[in-house]
Amino acid sequence: SSTGNDYRLLDVLSVPAVLGEVLADVPEGPCAVIDRMTTIRVKLTRGALESITEDALLAGGNLAALGDGSAANWELVQFQTATLVGDRTYELTGLLRGQAGSDAIMPDAWAAGSVFVLLDGAQKQLELSSSARNVAQYFRIGPSGRSYDDPSYKQYVEAFTGIGLRPYAPGHLTAKELGGDLEVSWIRRTRIDGDLWDTPDVPLGEAFEKYRVRVQQGSMLLREEEVGSPEWTYGAAARAADEVIGPVKIHVAQISEKFGAGAEASSEVA
User: Fold this and answer.
1) What is the DSSP pairing of strand 19-22 with strand 40-44?
2) Which residues contact 33 (CB under 8 A, 6 or more apart)?
3) Residue 240: enclosing H or E segment and its boundaries?
């Protein structure tokens, strides 16, 4: 319901999810390479996990989500090996972290008690119109054999931001001094068809190419500009006008017509 009244059936999930909780803190890990050092220890409330080959891992297998239970704060992670070490308790190793652009929200550590969900197809995307983004929706979730006003149903109120539309954080953000200017550059990423290897660049995946560049010193925003290519010059005159003294932090985010500014890449420059 969009008002808390006049509920309608949205969907019926016929297959239960494999889920549980994280038993020990999971520290931040490397992205774009297999993390062979970190172990994720989880206890399932139901279901089971299994190991796969490295080829199956690289083909997208054993995809799961780690999160705090909120609507937007989830890291997608894959695991190659699942070792049963106790009652419904597994140690997961051979990890691919921050998948599908979720590297941007990876915390310093996922705390013990965080939620683990195996993304095995049991889940479904909610069918909501684009006009429902950022608008509170009322959900009642419970056994489909009972009425939605039955005490077994739980009510949630969520306003979804449309994270699936959020541009990924740019990659390889670098800055170098050149004749008093600060030359900043980065590599664009894409949400769509980004795994193509026989094209000169990945598809843009947006209506236009545009980036927001911010310069901060501590908590103070010194400058914000928009550019149409993956490079920007922080000129000596602009730096003098901003009264830059000491290191600054450069933040770059790609801008989407539908979402706005996406996840940021950041770099501190002395």
Assistant:
1) antiparallel
2) none
3) helix 236-241
